[in-house]
Amino acid sequence: MCGRAYITYTEDELAARYLNEKRKRQPLIGLKPNYNLSPTQLAPVVTMQDGLTQIAMMRWGLLPFWAKNLDAVKKYSLINAKAEEIDQKRSYAIPFKKRRCIIPLSGFFEWKRVDAASKQPFAIYSKNYSILSVAGVWEVWRSADQRGEEIHSFALITTSANSLMKSIHDRMPVILDPKSESLWLDPACEDPAVLRKFLKPYPSKLLAAHPVSKLVNSPKNNRPEILNLEVSE
Q1: 113 partner at 20 to 30 Å CA-CA among 22, 33, 50, 168?
Q2: Is residue 2 flagged as an active site residue?
């Protein structure tokens, strides 16, 4: 499971990466660094709608459209969708077919079991890019009452671990190759056989990992020192 990540790239980097804009004319989404991105928080999400690539802030933790209210989905853990069963689950089947997205991350955290009583957190990130394109699905939940509340949310897609990750954890997010991003986002592509080809472990040789501070264990901690192993709780 991937339940924590971090974002240190700038809005200019985000726009250049996904919108082909070398320099933004105006603020995109008011992006700020998040050194401890946690479920229920907002994060940038890339989608394709009406033929245009768009970036918006969405809630991490997919809220199924069929949920009667927010309390009804609190018992579910919808932050990760397993690649092996994504088209079989009620909450993910339609989003997988029609509402796929990319969650741009600088990196993600995972915990390695050290002994029976402790775990060591690690940061995992790209060797070549400042942004990892993590595959996801998104949804729009609308309240049934007259308020008409609307929440956009997402879940990361996970797969089995590559050789680098296996020493830390048995699963990892699905990370897309830049050449695959346009087809993954395209809502016109609904062929499960085509889409499933993207749901595979990212090559180990393209990733790096290092141990980080246990400050990351608490979502209340959100500062650059998290990425430094030498900083204690």
Answers
A1: 33
A2: yes
